[in-house]
Amino acid sequence: MCLVSGDPRVYFESFEEDELKKNGFSKDHKHNQPQVLLALMVATDGLPVDYEIFPGDTFEGHTLIPVLTKIRKKYDIDKIVFVADSAMLSKDNIKCLEDLDEHNLSYIVGARLKNMAAHLKDKILDGRNYLKVKKGYSIACIQDRDRKIIVGYSESRARKDASDRKKAIAKLIKKLDRSKSPKSHLSNHGYRKYLKVEGKSKLSLDEAKIVSDAKWDGLHGVVTNSDLSLVDVLSKYSDLWNVEAAFRVTKHDLKVRPVYHWKPRRIKAHIGICFAAYALVKHLEYRVRLQYKKLSIEKIRYALMKVQTSILFDRDKRIRYGLPSRMKKDARKIYNILDIKRSITPYIIEKFKM
């Protein structure tokens, strides 16, 4: 199984387009700078599988079938399940998901439960449709034509949702006490959904909206055409964080963007090097987690940076010595996992003739 995503869009410190670099949608608001679209594929444990590069003006939905078909052929995979967040449920993307059926590909996509049709929302909110899986957690499956809406209810999540709303309302009440101007409140979406306007300028809390919002506490769902079990479907969706984590590492730790190259072959080489670097650090993180404990890539890097050797030159004897630093526990474990020997005994690097 692979999790596939079509972000980030890798932008350039340039304003000239070519067959690969194209202006397109940019979450960083760099619409006037060309970019390429990077589709990154990772396994459910976050280990990288492959990647593809598309021109920057490519609609993300259009990358789905070409990438998934290529993966299936390249790695001789019998069954692929595409997992994506709720952004894939836009009107433009629904057709792409439906096309997956024709290619015998399954999908699991985050659902925007509150935006669904009234008859579906009634079923989602009907507690009789839920089957208890374990203490504090239950699941419902609702059929919607050729696809299923699978919803999980968590008591702990419900408590958090209620607590977050309570804090938001408390802040809103304080804000209302400070200012009665509708303009200062209605421009903020977080406040606006709990407000109602009476007359031309009077604002008050919308108690009905608060009660309505509370009905959705603890609920989280997906839309799928997969034949996996209900528990497995929700579990696979929760694994999507591995893809998001992968992009955070490539964007911030490995500095995949911005790109300063302009020839297509050099651009592809730059991204290829970044992918290879990500594969190395991710496999290291994976091995450390299996054989020692969970350490983030940043913590591993910090531990290894502390492993240093000072150089001391004895002018009288004309000898250069290496003085290894002491290693802390994390660094020592990482070295052992990689089967790298390192002594903290000082040693001679070089002798010079007198």
Describe this structure in words.
The relative contact order is 0.11. The protein is α+β, with helices and mostly antiparallel strands and 354 residues long. It contains twelve helices and 15 strands. Among the domains are: 3-85 and 240-288; 156-214, no CATH class; 304-351, no CATH class. It has helices at residues 64-75, 91-102, 118-124, 155-178, 182-186, 189-192, 207-214, 230-238, 241-253, 264-291, 297-305, 329-337; strands at residues 3-5, 9-11, 35-42, 48-55, 81-84, 106-110, 130-134, 137-144, 147-154, 195-198, 202-205, 219-224, 309-314, 319-324, 347-351. A six-stranded mixed sheet has the order 5-6-12-9-8-7, sandwiched between helices. Strands 1, 2, 3 and 4 form a four-stranded antiparallel sheet that branches. Strands 13-14-15 form a three-stranded antiparallel sheet, with no helix packed on it. Strand 13 and strand 14 (319-324) form a beta hairpin. Residues 1-6 have low confidence and may be disordered.
